[in-house]
Structures are given as structure tokens and as C-alpha cells.
Design brief:
The structure is a homotetramer of 255-residue chains. In chain A, strand 2 and strand 3 form a beta hairpin. Chain A is mainly alpha-helical and 255 residues long. In chain A, 56% of the residues lie in helices and 6% in strands.
Chain lengths: 255, 255, 255, 255
């Protein structure tokens, strides 16, 4: 419980002057894209051209996934209860936990831990899949509830390929897909979360930031849903829950 | 943006000593009920016996209302996304806005504004109902989506009656019910929110605290739902939204 | 992603009739205290007289702890940003995480795991303290930043004692205090979180509910702070953070 | 409380295919910037080149403002309490209310209401400033706590100018600045919120989306602060509140 001065290294504020990681905000506004700014503020340095384009593709890829994700339900439910726009967005962000949007983080963690080991990606991937099996862990970032093949994965890797951008994590990620198919006897393709996990890992981002990229990406989608709820629906309409039955104690008396 | 010392008058903390509104916390633990403590911390003084019993009945009355309220959906959705217990409870509280749980506040506001006017309750109520009609406002705290007659209203007023507790707001509230029935030609009975609004107004609480009493009351219910979700359901199950269709633009090309 | 009917066993709602765990809400309002209702809705059964009194003391004990806890900062900061009462309360609940208010949960977990082992409390406690030392874990629920001796602990155990209420967890808890003092060479007394953890464990509550009891208890305090902020302070006043310095990159140019 | 199918027009999901406002997500990833995607998802159509560049400058402009904004305090406090990254971000978003980040919304509302009136901008602005004075309203989006001249305003208008992008709202905004200076006798310059309000109004966005643009813009900053708190600070450190005194009741006895 010390009152000592603490340190922050993100943005410097002086009267009439704002600099983000050392760069004047007016220069940033003039010369950087939003995606480059995200990279800068989290990494501390400017991205290469390839990194800038990939970061943009990442942030665009998960901008919305329709009305079914639970975070949309969170945002719409808060809005429907008669609350402000920021509360509705906070409600959506609050839902994005380990089971929803958490795969980037978990997938990146595994890739980052295994990528430091010696060996070529194929051998590592094979060993990793055996380890997952023995630990009964489902590899996060692979497979999807709705998409057999996630179109966003192919596009993200295509862009990386075109730009000649690849590293140990992307290679490991692709090797895991092959090893999973071989050992499971059926394909369990990389989904967008797994692909993002591989790319941000090659960019050198800490896996603990994984959920953060997803949240930045999904924010415009949550905003669009909040706005639709605000302008197209009545308050307190029935959004859920789906049909349920009471199975608790029967009527009884106190005493 | 001043750094001057500011004031707080709720709880005094010294090493080994805690006092709430001047009362030693160990005395409060020994002698006061939770309901009396709620009254004390918000009002600054101890309640009478009647006020203590009524405050308890108020806090108990809204402890839960099954799985349908949107705040339950908020809590369960956050929990289902793979989040912590406190995040799930925060998610439920976040939903309790103007359209859900907001009736106590709005009803108390109207009663507190009208109770200061001259005239007997019946005359005031008649005037109030005419004003509501001309302003096209639905009187908050009257009528219920599910209950034709809210059993909690009758019980709360019965307890107040037994204890001989009544004041201008309770009288005005009952008069409004009569005036509404007379002018609408059909009953629009006081619901539990309206009854609570009347009682806390007679206790002298600011209407702006209305939602707070509802939230304290509903907290154990939200906790019970969070715990059920945690222990009986799988993460990311489908809780909502109810069936929807896409009616946005058809497929098209960029450029 | 099934749409099948799911089950809930908390509250049954029918037109004009509400029952909590089988008990009619009007009976609950008439005959049960708020503390008894909390016990009922989470446990499914009515508490004994001793359990009712202890549950009340628990819920009262942590009702507020002045302006310093981070949850108060959370609530006041949200209110100060120009938000609604429920958003401010949600903001406070959101702060109550593993490092703030999390000790009940963690302490109860350890006690519940060790209480199932064979042996008398003193021997178990000695073994537990050795284990904590070897794992370099600080026993949660013991020691306090401000109070050398937590007055709430003594009172809670005094009430339990007066009511003849004790069980294996309370005994283990007291034995841990002795073992810690003996092995550390200086006292590390049970704080209110540790005491609550022991009592709710003897009541048979799952440790995963620990944070929930704390949140219910603290809600009136957060409400009082939100109301003070709303009525005594201007929006956007400086609440924090305490003094800081920028230590990020110096001014530089893009390109 | 209808269970009828409801409509959403944002994103269409089919197995293996995702389209945002009709555009295939893989095309969007390939061809659009994040800023263009934000415009698209909220407006339903693609922006012009000028609009795309301005939207990017808007989203970059408010990416962070150092450690003092209350939303940073909210995010850091939630993180410091021992919570997940998404809860910390939600905590920050929750703080962004009417008094913090609310100026874009309020400023855009006034500009959009006045821009529909007849008359040239200078005459309208003069009338508007008189009206503000008579209503004792401070024009939102003008003046700043720290910056006498907000460098982001000049840059945003410079970009608009270079691109030949201007409309009735930008003109009105600049005329208000002149009218305020003339009538107040001292400058009250447009701040970044006012400038953003003018530009999004000329783009045709509903003022009710104002806070949304600010939140999207600020998200990377909140993430950077959450990450700094996670990696550079200990849990439960003292972030606030600034010095306070207790001024409540003195010690007293119950009964």
C-alpha cells in the first residue's frame, strides 16, 4: 500500500502535446493506420509493411459473427434492460471469457511454449498432439461449431504467404493441423482463432494479449448489435433463455 | 482536477476498529439484522422495529423471480462464456437498467414529487392519473407481465398494516391504484416495485436509491443462478437469442 | 448447441404465485430474515437457528470497509464518469477478484480439501502449514493489511461459541492459526475472510460460493459509496491514480 | 414477450461463409482497412476514400490519453483486483459515461439538431451560443482540461481540408468556435471530441453512436494499460482514491 510514484510507458501527455510510444499523435493520425497503431501501442515499435497488413486482416477478420455469439447476447441483453451504450458494450466484453474468444490466448500459449523447444515443426507437432491426447486436452484454435473450413483462416495464411511472412509459430500451427488429421483420422482444421494465434506469436506478442486482439476486433460488431437493438427493438423483449423447466423442490411450508 | 482531501461519512477504519455510521462493527454483527444494517448504512440512523421488519420484507420479496428476467440471462451468459463468479454477478447487475428493475426508482420519484403537494391522497391521485394520461406516461410500479395480482404487494402492505406503519406515500400509492382502476375501467394493480417504492418513500429514502434496494434484494438470486450455471451446465451452451432471421444486404462485391 | 429444454431448481413462477425452493414468497417475506433467505436459496433448505444467526453475522460483517478497498474505487470511478447506479455497482463487483475478496474462496477451498483427511485438527494444521511453506503459498484468510487483530473474527467465533456451533472446519481454522504462530514465530491471526470461510464450510457450502457471500455482504457498502459520490461530489473529479511518471520512449519521428 | 422470429441485418453466417453487410469476410480482410470496416458495419455502405482516411484518423486520434482518464483507472483497478483481461477492459468501458467520453455524443446531437435549421452557419452558431447561454449549458466538445489547443483537432480538420471533405456540420462546428470566442471574450477551442462529432455528423452517423467511436478508438489504449498493470505491477497496489477524511457520525452505542 505504497503511495510512491509508479511508472507508465504508453503515452506522454503535456499541454498541447500527446505522444504514443514516442510518436506525436498528429503524426500517428496522419501516417499510421488503426491496425498499425494497435501494433505500436502494444509492441512499442512500428510494424513492418507485412505486419501492418496482417494486423489489419486480423482485426478485420473477427469484426462480427452474426447474432449467435454469447457476447452479442450480453450486449443486447444489457441494452434491452434500458442501459447506456457503454454499459451494453461492457456487457458484451464481459462475456468474452475462457470459453468464448479465449481460444486465441490458449492456442498462442501452447504454440509459444512448444516453439521454444528444439526440433523441426513436424516432429514437434507430432509430439504435441500425443501430449494433448495423454492430457485429454482439445487443441484450442482448431475446429469450429459452424464452419467445417474456416474461410478466414485460409485468407489470413494466404495474405501471409503473399507477403512472404512466416515464422516458427505459423509453421508449427500448420504442422499441428497435419498431425491432428493424421492421428485423429479426420481433419480438425485451424480456425480463425488458431490462425490469429500463430500470426501474433510470430509477431512476438505475449499470448496473454490474445483475448485483447479479439476484443478490439469484435468491438465494431458489438456496437452494431447494440445500435440495432436500440433502434429496431423494444426494451425488455424476450431474447432468452431458451425453454426451461423448474425441477426444484415442490411446494412446502415453513415450520 | 484537485488533489484536496475529500470527505466520506460511511465507515471509519482504524487499526483493530471498524465503525459503520458510528456503530462498532462487532456491535452491529451482534445486534443488527442485515436488513437493519442496510437501513443504517443508507440512512445513517437505526430503523424502528416496524421499519426493520419492513426493510427485511422488501429485501426478501425480490430475491429471485425464476429464470426469465434479463438480469438472470446476463449473469448466466457471462458465466457460460467462461468467466469468474464476480464477473457473472456484475453482468447481471449491469442489465438492471431503466426497463428492468427501474420501476421502483421511477415510481418513488413520482410519489415523492406528488406527496409534497397539498391535498388529500385521493384528490392528488386523481390529478396524477390525469397528468399521466395527458403526458402519455404509464404509471411505473403498477401492472405485471405475469402476475395479475402481485402476491408480494399484498404481503408487504399486510405487514405494514399489522405494524401500524403508514404514511403519505403508501396512502398515495393505494389511492393511485383506485384512481387508475376508475379511469382505465379495469384494474392495474400495484406490483411489488410500486409497493416497495411507497414504503421506502415513507421511510424517507431518496428515490434515486430505488434500484439499489432491488439490486441488493436480487443478488442472492443472481448468485444462485450463477452457481447453477457453473455446476449444472456446460460452457457456451445456447441460452439465446431466440430465433432470428438475417434481413441485411444480399451478397455483393467490393468495387 | 442444443435447444432442448434445460432445468432450473431455484424459483418457480406461476401467475400470482412465486415459490423459492418450494416456499411461498409471501411466507418467506413473513417468516424469514434476509440472511435465512440467502441460506435457503443457496443451500435449498432452511438454516437452523444457529446457522441463521451466523449467516446474518457473516453478511453484516463485511458490509463496508471505508473508502480504501479497490471495489469502492471501481464503483466511485464508474459513477464519477457519469453513469447509472447499476453500472456503478457492477463496476465495484467487477473489481472483487482473486486479489480482493478472493480470500474466502481460497481459504475455504484449502480447509474443505484438508478437512476430509484423517487426523485431529492440530496434526492436520501442522502438516498443512508445512505444505504451504514447501509450496511457498501464503495461507489465505490470515493476516490483514490494516488490522493486527481483526475484530470481526473474534466476534464471529464468539457468536458461534455462544450458540454451540462448531465443526471440523472451524476447529481446523483455529488450529491453523496456532500452527502458523508456532512455525512462523509470530502471530498471523485469522482475518474475517478466514473466519467466514471456516463457518460457511461447516455449514456445508461449496467453497466456490465464497466470493458470493462477500459480494452480497459488501453490496450495501458499495451502494452507500455510489450514493455519496452521486450526491456529494462533482463528476470527473480526480480519484486516482496516485502519482506516476512516464518512462516510455522519448519523442521520435515516423520514418 | 413474444417468441416470434426477429430480424438482424449485420452479418450473415452460413457454414463456411461469412458476409458483413453483404461483403464476403475474406474480401473485407483482403481489401478493407479496419477503419473502412467500422464505417461499413455501422453505415451499411462502403466509405469514400476521404471518409476512409478520416475515419482512420478519428479512430487513431483517441487511442490513448495517458494514465489520468478515469477509464484507465477503471481498467487498472479491475485488473489489480485479480481479474481477467476481458473484465478489466469491460471495467474501463463501463466508466466511459456521460461525463467521460460523452462529449462526442452530446456535441454531435446539438450539431445535428441545429444543422437542419435554415440559415448560414455563422448566423446559426450565433443563435446557438445565445441559446446555450440562456439555458446555462456548456457547449460539449469545446475546451479541454489539459490542452489549451487540442493538437488532434487541428490535424483532423487539416486532413479533412486536404481531402476537400467538408459539410454543414464541420462548418457549423467552426462557426461555433468563432461565436464562442466572440461572445465569451476568450477562446474556447474545439477539442478532439467536438471535431470528431462534426466529422461523423457530416458522414451521416447518428449522434447516438458517438460514444461508440470513442470506445473503439480507446480500446487499444485500455488494453495497453491493462497489460502494463498485469506485467509491471503487483495486485492490490494502491491506485487511489486520493486523500480523504471521515466526517460521518462519531462512535456511539446501539440502544
Amino acid at each position: 500500500m505504497s503511495d510512491k510514484t509508479w511508472k507508465t510507458g504508453i503515452t506522454k501527455i503535456e499541454p498541447g502535446k500527446i505522444s504514443v510510444k514516442g510518436y506525436d499523435i498528429t503524426d500517428v493520425m496522419e501516417k499510421l493506420s488503426y491496425a498499425e497503431t494497435v501494433y505500436l501501442i502494444l509492441k512499442g515499435e512500428l510494424p513492418s509493411k507485412a505486419e501492418a497488413e496482417l494486423m489489419n486482416a486480423i482485426l478485420v477478420s473477427s469484426v462480427d459473427h452474426g447474432a449467435t455469439p454469447p457476447s452479442v447476447l450480453g450486449t443486447r441483453t444489457v441494452m434491452s434492460g434500458g442501459n447506456s451504450l457503454n454499459a451494453a458494450l461492457a456487457g458484451g466484453v464481459l462475456v468474452i471469457g475462457d470459453s468464448h474468444g479465449g481460444a486465441i490466448e490458449k492456442s498462442a500459449r501452447i504454440m509459444q511454449e512448444w516453439a521454444t523447444k528444439d526440433g523441426d515443426p513436424a516432429a514437434l507437432a507430432s509430439e504435441l498432439v500425443d501430449w494433448l491426447k495423454s492430457e485429454k486436452i482439445r487443441m484450442p484454435g482448431f475446429g469450429h461449431r459452424i464452419h467445417k473450413v474456416d474461410p478466414r483462416t485460409a485468407k489470413l495464411f494466404e495474405i501471409a504467404n503473399r507477403l512472404g511472412y512466416s515464422g516458427r509459430h505459423i509453421e508449427l500451427c500448420k504442422a499441428i493441423e497435419k498431425a491432428l488429421a493424421a492421428k485423429l483420422g479426420k481433419p480438425l482444421p485451424i480456425n480463425v482463432d488458431g490462425a490469429i494465434a500463430a500470426v501474433i506469436s510470430d509477431m512476438g506478442f505475449d499470448w496473454r494479449l490474445g483475448k485483447g486482439f479479439f476484443i478490439i476486433s469484435r468491438m465494431p460488431g458489438l456496437l452494431a448489435h447494440a445500435y440495432e437493438e436500440m433502434t429496431r427493438e423494444k426494451p425488455m423483449r424476450k431474447l432468452g433463455p431458451l425453454p426451461f423447466d423448474y425441477d426444484g423442490p415442490d411446494y412446502r411450508d415453513i415450520d
